[in-house]
Specification:
Distance between the termini: 90 Å
Order of helices and strands: HEEEEEEEEEEE
Shape: rod-shaped
Number of strands: 11
Strand order of the largest sheet: 5-4-3-2-1-11
Structural class: alpha+beta
Helix content: 25-40%
Number of domains: 1
């Protein structure tokens, strides 16, 4: 007997196999979409972080940082005031999910700044003029991708630098 055609069992097995393949394909496409969105967030976070650091450090170098002090401001968890050689002062405001410097704001979409983990380190030689200043503001990330995007500000110099209200680590 030469029967040309599918039996009901063959048809059901074929549909089941195609369904399994389609389920895996949809899951794969969903994973790719999520990974793409996460990658874009990583790029945005890294760009914001490097922009913050670049702007502050450029001010420190170009305007010649002369004094660093803590300050008080409503709604902030940390506040640093930077005074420059031309007697201007700029403040760095750190709030729970944003950081502000010189009227620029950067908002963390999925994380928060950690005031408890913020550190300040300085080193002065015997002459009192050579120094290393380092301010680290940690970021607690709510995602589990182990991104590191702490704000680290570093300045080395030979000028007199006044440090007020900052506790060395």
């Amino acid at each position: 007997m030469n029967n040309k055609g599918f039996t009901l069992v063959e048809l059901m097995v074929s549909i089941s196999l195609v369904s399994i393949v389609l389920v895996f394909m949809f899951n794969l496409l969903g994973d790719i979409k999520r990974e793409s969105a996460l990658s874009n967030e990583n790029i945005d976070d890294a760009l914001n972080r490097s922009t913050i650091i670049r702007i502050i450090q450029n001010d420190w170098i170009e305007k010649r940082l002369t004094k660093v002090s803590t300050c008080e401001e409503d709604g902030t968890i940390l506040c640093y005031a930077f005074t420059f050689k031309n007697s201007t002062t700029k403040k760095l405001f750190v709030r729970k999910q944003e950081i502000e410097y010189d009227n620029e704001r950067w908002i963390l979409e999925d994380g928060e700044y950690n005031a408890d983990g913020a550190t300040y380190c300085s080193y002065k030689k015997d002459t009192g003029k050579n120094y290393l200043l380092k301010i680290v503001i940690p970021v607690i990330d709510h995602k589990e991708d182990n991104r590191i995007h702490d704000i680290e500000l570093v300045k080395m110099g030979t000028d007199d630098l006044v440090l007020e209200g900052l506790n060395p680590c």
